[in-house]
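The methods section describes the discrete structure representation at length, but only in general terms. An entry of this sort, consisting of the sequence and the corresponding backbone structure tokens, reads as follows.
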Amino acid sequence: MPKLTPPTATVHHSFLTAWDEFGTDDRWLGARSIVSGAPEWTRDQAADPAEFAAMVAAITSEASAGTTLAPEMLPQTVLWYVDGPEWLGRLSIRHRLGPAFAEGAGHITYGVRPSARRRGYATAMLIESLPVAAALGIDPARVTCLVDNVGSRKAIEAAGGVLQDEYEGKLRYWVATGRA
């Protein structure tokens, strides 16, 4: 059964296969870390198990208060959606929205690998992430999608998203996290 989990090296092979599926789609941020000075790993570098482990460690550290992030970046918790050894997607929860993210970005972003799309994973990931966002003190969470991304719009709405407006080609929603 698929579940959100902290990034893990146990999905190395599947992660690389997913990377190949994404190709040159620059919206996929799977191998980027926002840690100051962290490299943007190439596919060849990530194929090396030691480099992959370093990438996983950098991405995981993005949530830590003591980690120095790249300019204008904010702490975020990155979770991967996995089914056993199979990497299905990535979800990030920004702990807050700062100036660079105040208008057009959201607290929660996600992506599902191309071969796993249209199976309800985006909806499941988003719903499963809401208690994590609540534990971070986020309620409601802003979630955005491109105006023409019907699948993402449906996922946000299925998770209880309430449309705020359209802003610069994006739909901006608020989703209750259930924070008590």
Remarks:
- The beta strands are 3-5, 76-83, 86-94, 108-112, 141-146, 162-167, 170-175.
- The helical segments are 12-22, 43-47, 49-61, 121-135, 150-158.
- The chain has one domain: 3-137.
